[in-house]
Automatic annotation (TrEMBL):
GO terms for biological process: carbohydrate metabolic process. The lineage of its organism: Bacteria, Bacillati, Actinomycetota, Actinomycetes, Kitasatosporales. Keywords: Hydrolase. Residues 1-38 form the Alpha-L-rhamnosidase six-hairpin glycosidase domain. Its EC number is 3.2.1.40. It holds the Pfam family Bac_rhamnosid6H. GO terms for molecular function: alpha-L-rhamnosidase activity. It is an enzyme of class 3 (hydrolase). It catalyses: Hydrolysis of terminal non-reducing alpha-L-rhamnose residues in alpha-L-rhamnosides. This is alpha-L-rhamnosidase. Residues 40-116 form the Alpha-L-rhamnosidase C-terminal domain.
């Protein structure tokens, strides 16, 4: 990809239309980081046949929601952290599975719909879910 770094002239006008781009990769990498770490949506396998849902609450960010348009349909997450509790709702498209990571020191603390506990790792209870809407509460 070719692009030029002087697309906007000092008077606010544009250079010739050839090779003008304002979509620099630096901006895309920030967007990817926000989807993967704040919203918690990342590919588990190529083409999003499996999705990893792992929001990472912390700092002053106490809630987030996002939707990602995968090849199989929309993947969405919505989470909120308050008073030591955590609630995540997520939606997984048809013919897709998801590995859902919930920040909890023990899987018995997690109330969930349609999830199968897989393992405890890195301070999280990890569940496997299929297509549909799911809710997890700590």
């Amino acid at each position: 990809m070719w692009e030029r770094w002087d697309s906007i002239q000092p008077d606010g006008g544009f250079q010739t239309p050839e090779m003008n781009s304002f979509n620099h990769y630096a901006y895309g990498s920030v967007g990817e980081w926000m989807y993967a770490n704040i919203a918690g949506i990342a590919p588990g396998r190529a083409g999003y046949r499996q999705v990893v849902i792992r929001p990472r609450p912390g700092g002053e960010v106490t809630s987030a929601r996002a939707t990602f348009a995968s090849l199989h349909g929309p993947v969405s997450t919505r989470w909120q952290q308050r008073s030591g509790g955590f609630v995540l709702t997520c939606s997984v498209p048809p013919n897709t599975t998801a590995e859902v990571w919930i920040p909890a020191d023990h899987p018995d603390r997690v109330q969930h719909t349609h999830g199968t506990f897989v393992r405890a790792e890195d301070g999280c209870a990890v569940f496997e879910v299929g297509s549909g809407s799911h809710r997890f509460t700590v």
